[in-house]
Design a protein that fits this description.
Its EC number is 2.7.4.8. The protein has 210 residues and is α/β, with parallel strands linked by helices. It has a domain of 142 residues: P-loop containing nucleotide triphosphate hydrolases (Rossmann fold). The protein is 43% helix and 21% strand. The protein is built from eight helices and eleven strands. The strands form three sheets. It has a five-stranded parallel sheet, with helices on both faces. Strands 5-4-7-6 form a four-stranded mixed sheet. A hairpin with a 2-residue loop joins β6 and β7. α1 crosses α7. The relative contact order is 0.22.
């Protein structure tokens, strides 16, 4: 006889981090395009909008004064300084999705991940590495958006960012975007099936064995 017990789960926070140029933003976009069960947390930032970006889709673009007010009001789950600008994850948007059983993808750095882990220990952290530092620099230059000075700054920062790899649950080397994406998807699928995240599973099992 079919059981009437409904198996649900709390949405999870799925973090992707990497040094600039290693591919986390590309992987994030590909994941969002193929998996309807996860949505992107749109961060607030004080950096200027770049060509092709859309307010509310890529970021919420705010002034420094607005960002200060948001920090003071507790609007962020986490926030950090990155290349002279500030980025923050909006608390209300994330919790609403989580409570509705939807997964949330966060494209944040190690600073934000550390803060988020303190707020909610039940997060999944994935760090993406470049195949080599030479390849990382090639990818940065291939963008064609940064000056030599900015690229040098990003390369210098990359070593420090990579040193935090051990703080993550999973570490992947992005030699090929499609291959890396398949591994990220496998991690997400497995984490969704963890018994600790299945609301009602205990009662379901009890109904089976009496």
């Amino acid at each position: 006889m079919a059981t009437s017990i409904q198996l649900k789960r709390r949405g999870l926070l799925f973090v992707l981090s990497s040094p600039s140029g290693a591919g986390k933003t590309t992987i994030a976009r590909m994941l969002l395009a193929q998996d309807e069960g996860i949505s992107l947390s749109v961060s607030a930032t004080t950096r200027p909008m770049r060509e092709g970006e859309v307010e509310g889709r890529d970021y919420h673009f705010v002034t420094d004064a607005e960002f200060d007010r948001m920090v003071e009001s507790g609007a962020f789950l986490e926030w950090a300084h990155v290349f002279g600008r500030r980025y923050g994850t909006l608390r209300n948007e994330v919790w609403k999705s989580i409570e509705n059983g939807c997964d949330v993808l966060l494209d944040i750095d190690w600073q934000g991940t550390q803060q988020l882990k303190q707020v909610d220990p039940d997060i999944v952290r994935v760090f993406i590495l470049p195949p080599s530092m030479k390849e990382l620099e090639r990818r940065l230059r291939a963008r064609g958006t940064d000056s030599d000075e900015v690229i040098q700054s990003r390369m210098e920062r990359a070593a420090g960012e990579i040193s935090h790899w051990a703080e993550y649950d999973y570490v992947l080397v992005n030699e090929d975007a499609e291959t890396c994406l398949s591994k990220v998807q496998a991690i997400l699928d497995a984490e969704r099936l963890k018994a600790t995240r299945r609301i009602g599973l205990h009662d379901f099992v009890r109904s089976l064995i009496g």
